[in-house]
Amino acid sequence: MDSSSTSEAGPSQSSTSFERWRSAFAAIAGPSSTPESEEDRMRLQDEKDYNKCEKWKMDLMRKSPMITFMLKQLDLAGCSFSPSNIQCYACPPTTSGGFSSELGILLCQNQLFGKKHLEDTLAHEMIHAFDHCRFKMDPENLRHHACTEIRAASLSGECNWAREFFYRGHYWNRATVGKHHQECVKRRAATSVSSNPACPSRAEADKAVNEVFESCFKDTRPFDEIY
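The line above is the sequence of Mitochondrial inner membrane protease ATP23; the predicted structure tokens follow.
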């Protein structure tokens, strides 16, 4: 994990890794034609979002049982993370975070519902980092991609009932909570795999997830059980 920006520098920092994230998302978002006054407003909002994201990130890295546990496990696996390896940045509307073996972890400062959402997002990306550290993962292998997405969706907390009900509108029947958790994991994993440039269709993403689901869902490392 070789991301090198620092949390003290603020949203105007120009470190190599920050500029590479900027370039990656500029390519997605396309060229800007925003009027100057609107740019000023957006700049102020970006600064506000950035500062909030950084504060929450640092609080979680110090106090969250989930995040401190994952930091320790990554360190033991030989892939230590510091605040400079976890960056806040504005992203397109459909993205809340990302992991790159070269750049580290991205937290989308403008797509966070709250501190708990940031915690779940950070945990999700840290599980990806843990998997990358443990295995030689081929990003174009849909089964590899499906496995890490299954584990991240299941173990990070993003498929808990509150997130499903309040943010996604999926109703949970208390009598079948376990089944709904698995359905959420499959749905979230397939959506991620379908965005892989090597994936030709949603049907192929569903197929990859179904092929590895049983073994990858049972693999709860580094946890003893599902969080």
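Note on the example: Residues 11 and 47 are 6 Å apart (CA to CA). The radius of gyration is 18 Å.
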